Every structure is written in structure tokens, then in C-alpha cells.
UniProtKB/TrEMBL annotation:
Residues 159-173, 198-207 have a biased composition (Basic and acidic residues). SUPFAM superfamilies: ARM repeat, Translation initiation factor 2 beta, aIF2beta, N-terminal domain, Zinc-binding domain of translation initiation factor 2 beta. Residues 208-223 have a biased composition (Acidic residues). InterPro entries: ARM-type_fold, IF2/IF5, Transl_init_fac_IF2/IF5_dom, Transl_init_fac_IF2/IF5_N, Transl_init_fac_IF2/IF5_Zn-bd, W2_domain. The lineage of its organism: Eukaryota, Viridiplantae, Streptophyta, Embryophyta, Tracheophyta. Gene3D superfamilies: 1.25.40.180, 2.20.25.350, 3.30.30.170. This is Eukaryotic translation initiation factor 5. Keywords: GTP-binding, Initiation factor, Nucleotide-binding, Protein biosynthesis. Residues 152-224, 252-279 are annotated as: Disordered.
Length: 427
């Protein structure tokens, strides 16, 4: 079965993971009874994660013709003779309205019905909730025929329970091992030693002697030795170790010498002697010339700062002052990010840290779009799944766990992990 990428914008992307079958139609009947049968409508709807009756009804609404989908046989029929290309174009508009996320374009969305009877699309990748236009005829049909609620993933629950069971078992084994060490050998080992030969007894006795020596050493280690640090005690020790003449030459003082004051380290500098702030200003001035990615890469090589400092400066200079539309700007200026990543020798950790530093200084509107920006970079193969998840987990457990950026990154990380588990199940 021939497959194609979901969404017209992703048509030429050879590595796009979301695919659906190409539409196959068949004209049946003649005269007034002529009709068009979409042969693989069930497979298409399954790939889009939407009921087949939604797509069939949408065709009927757009063509102004009667349409019907039989749940038992899986046959989708639209009255009249219609070309495959025309139906395929209608399917693309359906995907844009009812499948793809309005912000990041990801087709892995879920239809939600609010209390006020409004339709929304919740994206599993970036967490954005899109409002669907209720003026469309299909919206009323969806309200009358809501999608089935997805059941909880039993396999995930089983895996989590298995992990928890293994953790509890390991903890119980450790407790049992410590108890066995404290209580000594078990009855079974005692019986074996009683019925053993003289040679075995001699071996066990030698082992027990070694154990006793080790216990004595451990007891000695537990003793805390206290040294008298008074002036009189120090003089007595010196008299014992030194001669009277040598002891008289030693002068004991209790006055604390003034500690040398630590000089403040100068701000980070570039090759031209500029600080980090002036480096950002210098890059801003250079970016006004609209350089190419190769020109920017050459310019970055003239700085002597660390890769992290330079990439942080690039990210701040390129996206400084952006509020709404931050993710779109990241997608537009990916070539500059590629140049910065090349300067950092492909270190994705440096790039992720630069994004984190930028979010600390950026406006709240820009931080809200960080998940979409990460998805654009992930789709462009500039970021890998493992690095993103590791960066996220370190951020939650580190000093910056209170930062607000992590709650906006969380939906994207959960989407990555769920996609990985689903691919493992398919394999």
C-alpha cells in the first residue's frame, strides 16, 4: 500500500514519521445512482486517529452531496462521480482543521468537547490547545457524534507496576542481607559445619579467626580519638619531640592572621577583550548585516570564549526581545542555530543549556512556546530524544528545578517518551 506524509507541508520530507495511505476511490453505478466509493477510508481514518464517519461526512458537506459510512462493512460512499484529486484536496483541509495542531503542526492531537459545547484540539507534543471553528457543518456533526474516550494504556501501567515490584524486591533483599550479617550464619550453615571433616573445620576456623581480626579492626576504627589543642598541651608535645633549645625557638601564637581578600574574577571576555554583554551587542550588530550561516560560523571562530558562552550569546542576540512568535522565529532562523551548533562541535547539551538560559531572561509569552521550538529543532534533527529527556530530568532535579520553563517542556517530553514506548510495542 502506497503511503504519503500527513499534511501538505510535509510532502517532501523523507524522514517524516507520520504517514497515511494514499486515497483510492472507485466509481460505482450509473445515471442518478452513480456514487464514489472511498475504498481505503478506514485505513486513512486510522492513520489520522479520527473516526471514518468524520472524514466521510466532511466530503459530503464540502460537495453538497449525501454521504454515508457503514460501521459494519467499513464502506464509505459519497453520492455522485468525484475525482480522487478533488477528494484528496478536501482531505487536506480536513487535516488542517481537525487533525494538525494549530501551533506546531503535529498531527498527534485529541478532540476535546468543552462544557460550553465547543471543539478543541489538544496537542500531545507541545500541549497547545487549539480552538476549532464552530461555523463548519462538521463541527455540529462531531458534537452529536463525539469521539470515543481513549482507554488508559494498560501496558504502561503494567510496566510501571513491574518496575515498582522490582524496586521493592531489591530493597527487601538489602534488608535481609543486612539482617543476616548481624545475626551471623544461618542454621543450615551451622549443620554443614557440624557434619564436615577436620580439614573443613580447620579452614572454617581460620576464616573465623580472620573475621574476628576484621571485627577488631572495625571496632578500632569506630573509636574516636580526641586531641587536646590547647596551648599548654601543644607546648608539652613540642618539649617531648624537640630539645629545649629548639622548643624555645618555636613561637606559638593564637592570633588569626588576616585572610587574604579574594579578588573578584573579571567578567567573561571574548578575544577582543569584551565581556559577555558586549559580545551579545557585537553579535547583534553583526547580525544586522544578515550574514549567511557560513559567515556567522567564521565570525564565531574569531571569539576565544568557551562554546557555551558563545552559543548563549548567539541565542540571546538572535532572539532577544521576541515575545509571541518565538517558536516561528526559531524555525525561520534554524541556519544560525546550525552555525552555533557547528561551533560547539555538535554538542546538543550546549544548545539545550542556551535555550534554558534564554528562557530565564525571555518574556513569559516566549517561554510558553519553548515546547514548540524544541519540536521544530527535533524535527530538523538538531536535537535528539535522549539529550532532551536527559536535559529535562537534570533540570527537574538540579538547582533550577523551580524554573517555570520545565512545566512548558513537560508535554513535549511526555510525548517523546510515549512515542518511544509505542514504537517499542510495534517492534
Amino acid at each position: 500500500m502506497a503511503l504519503q506524509n500527513i499534511g501538505d507541508k510535509n510532502r517532501d520530507d523523507a524522514f517524516y514519521r507520520y504517514k497515511m495511505p494514499k486515497m483510492v476511490t472507485k466509481t460505482e453505478g450509473r445515471g442518478n445512482g452513480i456514487k464514489t466509493n472511498i475504498v481505503n477510508m478506514v485505513d486513512i481514518a486510522k492513520a489520522l486517529a479520527r473516526p471514518a464517519c468524520y472524514t466521510t461526512k466532511y466530503f459530503g458537506c464540502q460537495l453538497g452531496a449525501q454521504s454515508k459510512f457503514d460501521e459494519k462493512t467499513g464502506v464509505a460512499v459519497v453520492n455522485g462521480a468525484h475525482e480522487t484529486a478533488q477528494l484528496a484536496s478536501f482531505l487536506e483541509t480536513f487535516i488542517k482543521k481537525y487533525v494538525q495542531c494549530y501551533r506546531c503542526g503535529n498531527p498527534e492531537t485529541e478532540i476535546l468537547i468543552t462544557k460550553t459545547q465547543m471543539l478543541q484540539l489538544k496537542c500531545a507534543a507541545c500541549g497547545f490547545v487549539s480552538d476549532v471553528d464552530m461555523r463548519d457543518k462538521l463541527a455540529a456533526f462531531i458534537l452529536k457524534n463525539p469521539p470515543e474516550v481513549k482507554k488508559s494504556k494498560d501496558k504502561k501501567a503494567l510496566r510501571r507496576a513491574e518496575k515498582e515490584r522490582l524496586r521493592n524486591g531489591e530493597a527487601a533483599d538489602k534488608v535481609a542481607a543486612t539482617k543476616q550479617k548481624k545475626s551471623g550464619p544461618s542454621k543450615s550453615t551451622k549443620k554443614k559445619t557440624c557434619g564436615s571433616s577436620d580439614e573443613d573445620r580447620s579452614v572454617t576456623e581460620s576464616h573465623s579467626d580472620d573475621d574476628e581480626d576484621e571485627d577488631e579492626d572495625e571496632d578500632e576504627d569506630d573509636v574516636q580519638w580526641v586531641t587536646d589543642t590547647s596551648m599548654e598541651a601543644a607546648k608539652m608535645r613540642m618539649k617531648e619531640q624537640l630539645s629545649d633549645v629548639a622548643a624555645g625557638m618555636v613561637v606559638l601564637t593564637t592570633e588569626d592572621k588576616p585572610k587574604p581578600t579574594k579578588k573578584k574574577s573579571p567578567p567573561r571576555k571574548s578575544e577582543s577583550g569584551n565581556s559577555q554583554e558586549s559580545l551579545v551587542k557585537e553579535l547583534k550588530e553583526y547580525l544586522k548585516k544578515s550574514p549567511s550561516a557560513n559567515q556567522l560560523k567564521t565570525q564565531l571562530s574569531s571569539y576565544s570564549g568557551t562554546p557555551q558562552e558563545v552559543v548563549d550569546a548567539v541565542f540571546e542576540a538572535v532572539f532577544d526581545g521576541i515575545q509571541k512568535g518565538f517558536a516561528k522565529e526559531v524555525n525561520k532562523k534554524k541556519n544560525y542555530i546550525v552555525a552555533a551548533l557547528a561551533y560547539a562541535e555538535g554538542s546538543q547539551t550546549v544548545l539545550l543549556h542556551a535555550i534554558e538560559c534564554f528562557c530565564k531572561k525571555a518574556s513569559p509569552d516566549a517561554v510558553k512556546e519553548v515546547a514548540v521550538a524544541l519540536k521544530f529543532l527535533y524535527d530538523a534533527d538538531l536535537l535528539e530524544e535522549e539529550d532532551i529527556v536527559e536535559w529535562y530530568e537534570k533540570g527537574l532535579s538540579g538547582d533550577n528545578k523551580g524554573s517555570g520553563v520545565w512545566k512548558f517542556v513537560k508535554p513535549f517530553v511526555e510525548w517523546l517518551q510515549s512515542a518511544e514506548s509505542e514504537s517499542e510495542e510495534e517492534e
